[in-house]
Specification:
Layout lengths: L7 E4 L15 E5 L5 E5 L4 H5 L5 E3 L1 E2 L5 E2 H15 L17 H12 L2 E2 L4 H26 L7 H6 L7 H12 L1 H16 L11 H11 L11 H14 L16 H4 L1 H8 L15 H37 L5 H15 L1
Parallel strand pairs: 4-7
Antiparallel strand pairs: 1-3, 2-3, 2-4, 5-6
């Protein structure tokens, strides 16, 4: 397969690293293996991301760790593609938690090979949660298309196998559909879907991107001078959406957001501006300079960790010798030297 021909590349001038002027809703910044940055706009399909030739896309995240803007849309697109591939997400597994950890690591590595993702376990967990959701949606789609219990028997379902799925995994999935547990889970899922009162009707744009647009426009002004603009915004939103009640899973914030992210301690810190990281990776002084500094810090941390481990072993030896009543002068001098290094 060939990559789509609708992409438009342009080299980024040096000044854009300090004062980005591009539209991040339609353009995305990339970096190749040699550290060169480019702007890419136009249609970017999943096949283009897979055939990246060493080019990685920058992804922005909001304070709720949701991917936003053009880079975030591309990340979600690749996640949907990964969820449909048997080498990563076999449909024969009945529970996401049964997916092998090696496969989970492979998914993250594939994504990091194609996107610039911030370090941190929270980002990995959020990405895996999105893959799990896309995987369940894919299996639901397969069921809606291929599961016809009124027309075909279970054995006939085994033979109506779609492409890209092995016979063994397909048989496991069909067997689950026909099982009592599978039918019960299907019933519960339909009831849960019917009970939803707020449906996403904003088209292809996610709630996270809608809120990012709203924050950028900054059109809402606080009527009550004793409250911040954010507090007034939240009160109006909650009154219209929830009627004063606090739902377990707040609506209108997008995937992966729970009540504690909006209300509770985390919600309060978020309103005060804490945790707002990686909104625009290019707002740093210089991407290359930041990457080199990070690499230098990693080396320093490795040296420091090795020194601490050596000092710890030395102090443990001294304590053992004191316990036995045989501390040597050389050992005491070495321990004193290590303590002076720690004080520095």
């Amino acid at each position: 397969m060939q990559a789509s021909s609708f992409q438009r590349h342009s080299l980024i001038p040096s000044w854009i690293l300090d004062k980005p002027e591009f539209d991040d809703t339609v353009d995305v910044v990339t970096i190749d293996g040699e550290g060169n940055h480019s702007l890419v706009s136009g249609s970017i399909q999943a096949i283009d991301i897979w055939n990246n030739n060493g080019v990685r896309y920058y992804v922005q995240f909001n304070e709720l760790y949701q991917p936003i803007r053009k880079g975030g849309q591309l990340l979600v697109k690749l996640i949907g593609s990964i969820a449909k591939q048997e080498r990563f997400c076999p449909v024969g597994e009945l529970d996401w938690h049964h997916i092998d950890e090696v496969l989970l690591a492979d998914m993250i590595n594939e994504i990091r090979d194609r996107f610039v993702i911030p370090n941190g376990e929270i980002y990995i967990n959020k990405i895996l949660s999105r893959i799990a959701k896309a995987w369940r949606q894919y299996k639901s789609h397969l069921k809606s298309v291929y599961f016809k219990p009124q027309e075909r028997s279970q054995e006939e379902h085994y033979n109506a196998m779609p492409g890209g799925i092995s016979r063994d995994n397909w048989r496991k999935l069909v067997k689950f559909w026909f099982s009592e547990k599978g039918q019960y889970m299907s019933k519960c899922g339909k009831e849960a879907r019917a009970s939803q009162s707020h449906i996403h009707i904003s088209g292809g744009k996610s709630y996270a991107n809608i809120q990012a647009d709203y924050a950028k426009d900054n059109m809402l002004a606080a009527v009550d001078g004793s409250k911040s603009r954010k507090e007034v915004e939240d009160e109006v939103f909650e009154s219209l959406m929830y009627g004063g009640e606090l739902p377990k899973r707040p609506q209108g914030f997008g995937f992966g957001v729970v009540k504690s992210n909006i209300y509770g301690v985390h919600g309060l810190l978020r309103k005060e501006g804490h945790g707002k990281v990686h909104k625009r990776p290019l707002e740093n002084e210089n991407v290359n300079l930041t990457m080199s500094k990070n690499a230098e810090l990693v080396k320093r941390n490795e040296v420091l960790e090795e020194t601490v481990n050596q000092n710890t072993m030395l102090l443990m030896s001294l304590l053992e010798a004191m316990r036995n009543g045989k501390p040597s002068t050389e050992l005491i001098d070495a321990a004193q030297s290590s303590l002076r290094l720690i004080q520095r």
